Amino acid sequence: MSLRIAVVNGDGIGPEVIPEAQKILEHFLPDADFYEVELGLAKWERSGSACSPDDIRELKGADAILFGAVTTPPDPNYRSVLLQIRHELDLYANLRPIRPLRSSGQGSPADMMIVRENTEGLYSGIEEIGEERSTTLRVVTKAGSKRIAEKACSLILERNSKSPLVIGYKGNVLKSDLLFRDTCSEVAASFGIQTKAVFIDALCLDVLQHPKNYDVIVTTNMFGDILSDVCGYLTGGLGMLPSANIGDTHAFFEPVHGSAPDIAGKGIANPVAAIRSAAMMLEYFGMKREACLVEESIADLINSGVCTPDLGGCESTSSFGNRLLAAVCKKEERQI
C-alpha cells in the first residue's frame, strides 16, 4: 500500500517553497499518493473557514503532512490553523534540529535538537479576549511534560549523546514551570540520563555563545518557539530551519519561517527550510540514508555559492530546487 502524503501549500511564499520540497519527496517516493489540502488565510477570506472539520479529516487520513507557512491575521475571529492542527492531531512533540550547512573550515559550530512541547503552555488556545483585559491560560500538565521528556530522552539515546538533557524553563517567575522541570528530571532519571535545568533567558544567550555545549534541549511551547528562532542565527537565518511535529499516530513537517508576504511572488524565497523538512519526513519513514543525501547535497550547493539572495547568491526559488534535485541524482549515481 502506497504512502498518502497531504500537501498544504499555505499562504505567502508557501506555494513557492513547498513544490520544491515536494519534488524531492516525489523523487524518493515515486509511488506515494500526494494530495493537496487547502488551508490558511486565502481560504478564510473566501469561505470564512481557514481549516474546516473536513480539512482535519483529510489531514488525519495522511501518513504524513508537508505544510507550508500560513498567515495569521490580527483578527479575533481567526483561529490559528497551526494550533488547531497540533491539537486535533495531538502533535505533542515539535522537533527543531539546529545544524548549520555552511562550512566554517572548523567543523559545525552546532548540532543540537530543540524538543518543544507542542500542545500546552501559552499556546493552549484557551483565551478570553476583552476590550479592557485579555487573558491566555498557560497550561502545564504532568502528562504533557512526561511525554515530551520521554521523547527528548529517546532522542538522546538515538544520538548516543553523553551530554545531559538540558531543560529550558523559568521557574523563578512562572511556578508552573517547576512542574515541567521536575517531571522532566524524573523521566530523565528513569532513562539513566543526567539533566541540567537552565533559565530560558540565560539559555538563549549561552546557546549562541557556546553552541557546542548543547545537544538535546527540552522546553515548553512558547519558550521552544523563541529559542529555536534565536538559534536560526547559527544556521544562516530562518530560511534554513526545518521542523517536525510528531504525535503517536500523525506526523507533520514544516519550515520554521513564516509566510513572508513581503517577498511572496518574487521567486526569491529560500526553499531550504521546506526541503530540509521534507528530509525529516524521509527520516520519519525510515529513509535515513536518503535524508542524509538531501542534507549533504544542500550543503554542497550552498558551500559552492549556489544559494538564494538571502544567503548572498542569485538563485531563484525554483532554480535552486532544480539544481538540488540534479545534485541529489548525481550523488545517487556515484553511490551505485
Describe the fold and architecture.
The protein is 43% helix and 16% strand. The chain is built from twelve helices and twelve strands. It has helices spanning 14-28, 41-47, 53-60, 81-88, 142-158, 176-191, 200-209, 221-230, 232-235, 272-284, 288-303, 317-335, and strands at residues 4-8, 33-36, 64-67, 93-98, 112-117, 127-128, 135-136, 165-169, 195-199, 216-219, 242-246, 251-255. The strands form two sheets. Strands 2-1-3-12-11-4-5-10-8-9 form a ten-stranded mixed sheet, sandwiched between helices. Strands 6-7 form a two-stranded antiparallel sheet. Helix 1 runs parallel beside helix 10 (272-284). The model has no long low-confidence stretch (mean pLDDT 94).
Element order: H for helix, E for strand: EHEHHEHEEEEHEHEHEHHEEHHH
Share of helix, binned: 40-55%
> How many domains, in number, for the residues?
2
- CATH architecture classification of the largest domain: 3-Layer(aba) Sandwich
Query: CATH class of the largest domain, please?
Result: Alpha Beta
- The name of the CATH topology of the largest domain is Isopropylmalate Dehydrogenase
Beta-strand residue fraction: 15-25%
Strands, count? 12
Largest sheet: 10 strands, mixed
Distance between the termini: 27 Å
